[in-house]
Amino acid sequence: MKHRALALTCLLSALWFTAMLPAQAQAAQKVSMATSAKAYKVDAARHVYAAYANRIYKGKLPPLVHAIVVLEVELDAQGEVKDIQMIRVPTHAPDVTAEVRKLIQQASPMPAPTRLGGVKFTEVWLVDKSGRFQLDTLTEGQR
Asked: If you write DSSP's letter for every residue of 95-135 in order, what string do you get?
């Protein structure tokens, strides 16, 4: 009986400690098992979708989206953003470029690319006028 009480106390302490960690620290516990940048890109996209579930455009995108942002993200071995290089930006919507950069930084750390020791990948953000988006890696396509 004492062992059960001790085990329950340890479990509750661990749960309490985890709940008290900042969201960023909890996110840092995620690990990617990807062995290539292409495979890691899927883990990163899923992470972004989970972080911004209410901003994901559901279903097929309209034939013309408001803005397309193409960028290259570099992460360290812990999944922290080291660099974001904008490759293609919508000149008509500079606010979208700034928002995408902010969303990536706020979603950091991404799942730790432990097998890669850091990773660099390219992603395409497809953004509609309401600010909802899909990532090309997980897109549902267009109508």
From this structure: HHHHHHHHHHHHHPSPPEETTTTSEEEEEEEEE-TTS-EEE
Joined together, the tokens standing for residue 102 give 């902010």
How far, CA to CA in Å, does 11 sit from each of 2, 4, 24, 27, 116? 14, 10, 22, 20, 33
What DSSP element (H or E) covers 12? helix 2-20
Instruction: Convert the pLDDT of each residue in 52-73 to its tens digit.
Output: 999 999 999 999 999 999 999 9
Question: Parallel, antiparallel, or unpaired: how do β-strands 119-127 and 67-75 relate?
Answer: antiparallel
Q: Residue 55 has what DSSP assignment?
A: G
Contact 52, 60 (CB under 8 A): no
Q: Which DSSP symbol is given to 57? A: P
> What is d(CA 12, CA 4) in angstroms, rounded to the nearest whole number?
12
CA contacts within 13 A on the Cβ side of 123: 28
Question: Which domains, and CATH codes, for the chain?
Answer: 26-138 (3.30.1150)
| pTM as predicted | 0.79
How far is 141 from 12, CA to CA, in rounded Å?
A: 45
